[in-house]
Amino acid sequence: DVDSIDLTVQRQLSNRITMEMGYIGRFIHHEYLGVNVNAVPYMMTLGGQSFAQAYANVETAMGCATSAAACGANGVPSVAPQPFFETALAGTGYCNNFANCTTAVVNKQFNHFASQAVWDLWSALDTGGKTPGFNFPQTMLNTVGQASSGVAINASVGYGNYHAGFVSLKMNEWKGLTMQQNFTYSKALGTASLPQSTSSFTADDPYNLSEMYGVQTFDRKFVYNLFMVYQPSLFKSQSGVLGRVLGGWSFAPIFTAGSGAPLACLDNTGASQAFGSADGVGYGDAENCLPASRAGISNSVHSGVAGGNDSFGNSVATGTAGSTAGTELNMFADPVKVWSQFRPPILGLDTRAGGVGPVRGLPYWNMDMSVRKNFKITERFNAQFQLVVTNVFNHVVFFDPTLDITNPSSWGVLSAQGNLPRQMEFGLRFGW
């Protein structure tokens, strides 16, 4: 269901100039959203503590709440006993030879904590007594089978909204100039961020759909368009030699510009397991790694960015976009600093997964133009020359970089042109 609000005010500034201002609102209800209900029951509480709280405390002790670089960098940490693990594993033998059950879990499942693989962590402990693990009956996640069937529903539970304010200015035949320009300021938010008619994507958190509420793929804050046709009235009749040379011209530029679209940031599990909603095999979701700070985050082209190593020895932004050393291009002026403050979402700490992206990609602008010249040869014969130029200024717009915290060497690196280089097309037409 979609509810719409459209408001437009038009003002005639003169007999040739018109201005329109307005608002467009779209409110989406009951949008299609795949939901895998065979998810980790992270709200389960034992010993007065939920699994999510116990998990978040371990992640914090490992440094994962600080950054991906710090997560587990100092090895297995000393973690205070967590009531959930102590109660859930009591009497199972899982904690033998360890000071307590929390220490046993952290040591045995360290890799799952380090990669935020919540689904795999729960699955490893949710054994129903078959092997040392939780001392309560298996949950649906393992009873049904996590990698095979799962339990998914195609529900109409998604929601979203779009708000836009716009200004349009039209000029009609003023001294040979016809023009229209439009400026739009908008925001697009929602839950069903990806088309899912035939996919295995699921909600980031089936128990809290607002977890995935955020920006949509088409959320560009600013968009501007300008279209002009200029036909000089000088020597319009093309009388005489000078008239045939200087008359009959027309120029039609088209200029477009816009701010960057949301840019996804892949986390340690390939965007699937951080909230326990998917296994990354049969199901995936759209969670994003998140910045602990916005310092240094930009979305413009920086040249000569050679990258470097962070304090943990990770090689950051060493991909080469140029052919020689020192010509590397990056979306961040200091990619090492930016990389060092990103981390995956953490169950029990985060309540938002970033929509389709926590940062903005590169803005764009472009100008195309056509030039025409009509030639009046005789009363009966005429000709028309046409030049069409795309990307008049040969301006480069790069593809957005890949942000993947598991691949710091490509962090922010701009490696390919996203638009076409300047192209010119010539044409000549005769009429009689």
Concise structural overview:
The protein has eight helices and 22 strands. The protein has helices at 51-61, 83-88, 101-108, 110-114, 118-125, 140-144, 240-246, 335-339, and strands spanning 2-12, 17-36, 45-46, 49-50, 152-174, 177-190, 214-215, 222-230, 249-258, 262-263, 265-266, 290-291, 302-303, 308-309, 315-316, 329-330, 342-343, 359-360, 364-376, 382-390, 403-404, 423-431. It is elongated, with a radius of gyration of 30 Å.
Descriptive notes:
The protein is mostly beta strands. It contains 8 helices and 22 strands. Helices cover 13% and strands 33% of the residues. The two termini are 56 Å apart.
Which labels suit this protein?
13% helix; 432 residues; mainly beta; two-stranded antiparallel ribbon
Topology:
Blueprint: E1 2-12, E2 17-36, E3 45-46, E4 49-50, H1 51-61, H2 83-88, H3 101-108, H4 110-114, H5 118-125, H6 140-144, E5 152-174, E6 177-190, E7 214-215, E8 222-230, H7 240-246, E9 249-258, E10 262-263, E11 265-266, E12 290-291, E13 302-303, E14 308-309, E15 315-316, E16 329-330, H8 335-339, E17 342-343, E18 359-360, E19 364-376, E20 382-390, E21 403-404, E22 423-431
Parallel strand pairs: 11-21
Antiparallel strand pairs: 1-2, 2-5, 3-4, 5-6, 6-7, 6-8, 8-9, 9-19, 10-18, 12-17, 13-16, 14-15, 19-20, 20-22
